[in-house]
Amino acid sequence: MPHKVIVDCLTGETTEVELTAAEIADQEAAQKAAEAERKAQELIAAAKATAKAALLDKLGITAEEATLLLS
Amino acid sequence: MATYTLISSNILSSSAASVTFSAIPATYTDLVLRCSSRDTQASVTDYYLNLNFNGDTATNYSITSIYNFGSAAASDRWTSQTNGYIYQDNSATATANTFANIEIYIPSYTVSQNKPYSSFGAPESNVANLSTRSVSAVAGLWRNTAAITSIVIAPPTSSFVSGSSFYLYGISNA
After folding, report:
1. pLDDT by residue (tens digit) across B14-23?
2. For all residues of chain B together, what is the average pLDDT?
3. Which residues does chain A have within 8 Å of residue B69's beta carbon, measured at their own beta carbons?
4. Do B10 and A19 lie within an 8 Å CB cutoff?
5. CA B78 to CA B129: how far, in whole Å?
6. Would you say B23 and B168 are in contact if contact means Cβ atoms under 8 Å apart?
7. A37: chain B residues, CB-CB within 8 Å
8. pLDDT at B147
9. Cα B141 to Cα A32: distance, rounded to the nearest angstrom
10. CB pair distance less than 8 Å for A5 and B12
11. How many whole angstroms separate alpha carbon B58 and alpha carbon B64?
12. Could you give the domains of chain B?
C-alpha cells in the first residue's frame, strides 16, 4: 500500500501513513493526465521533426549546413 | 553571524508518495530544505516536484523558472497554481541509482507577509545529451501571510524511491 512520510519537527518522530483512497485516486488521475501530456508532446515533436526534414529537403541542404548558416 | 541548524531530516527506507515536515518551530529567521531525490515515474514527467505549505491547496502559488532544455536556455511562468513547483527530480528513466539534488531557500517564513522561496536543482544523471532540464532555478511565491508550520514535498504522479533524503535547516540571524 502506498504511504506518505510525516516528520514531526517538534518531537523528531517519523510516521508512515497509508494514502487514503481519495489520495490514491488523485495520484492515478495525475498519472493519466501526465501520460496524455507526454503523448501530446511526442506528437508535437514528431510533427516538428517532419516539418524540419521537409524544409531541409526543399532547400537542398543538410541539417549540419543549416546549423552552419545560423551560427 | 548567522547559524545553520538541522531541524529534522529523513532518509527514506522505502518508497513514499510524499514527505511532510510538520510542527516546524517558529524560532528561526529562514528555512532551507535540501533534497537528494529520485522517483518511480517511468516517463520523464516527474522532473519536477510539488511543494506545499501549511496544507494549502488553493490557487495561491506562482512560479517563475529559468532552465536549460538540451543546449537551449528557456524559461516559464505559472500563476495561480495549487502547489509550488521545484526542479528537478530524477525519474526512473535517469541513470540507475542516481539522484537529483535540490536546495530550497525560504526567507522570513514566520513574518506576516506573502512567502517567497527560491530553489536551485540539478539531476545527477549521466545520460548523454540530456534533452530535458538539467539545471533549473526557480523564484516561487506562496500568497499567504501565515507563518509556515508544515512543508510537503512530493513527486506529482509517482513516489520517491528508497534512499531519497531530505534535510530541513533553520537559519538564525545574529
Report:
1. 999 999 999 9
2. 91
3. none
4. no
5. 27
6. no
7. 45
8. 98
9. 28
10. yes
11. 18
12. 3-172 (2.60.120)
pLDDT in tens, B21-59: 999 999 999 999 999 999 998 876 678 899 999 999 999
Give the one of B7, B10, B44 whose C-beta lies nearest to A5's C-beta: B10
Tell me the ipTM for this assembly: 0.90
CB contact under 8 A, B22 and A3: no
Q: Region B110-131: what's the mean pLDDT? A: 83
Residues of A whose CB is below 8 A from B21 = 7, 9
C-alpha cell at A8: 514531526
Show which of residues 1-60 on chain A sit within 8 Å of chain B, judged by CB atoms.
2-12, 14, 16, 19, 23, 27, 30-31, 33-35, 37-38
State the helix-helix crossing angle for A21-59 and A63-70, rounded to 10 degrees.
90
CA–CA distances in Å: residue B19 to residues A4, B71, B126, B165: 6, 33, 26, 10
Locate B10 and state its grid cell.
529523513
Q: What is the pLDDT of residues B123-141, one digit of tens each?
A: 877 665 555 677 899 999 9
Instruction: Reply yes or no on whether the pLDDT at A40 is more than 90.
Output: no
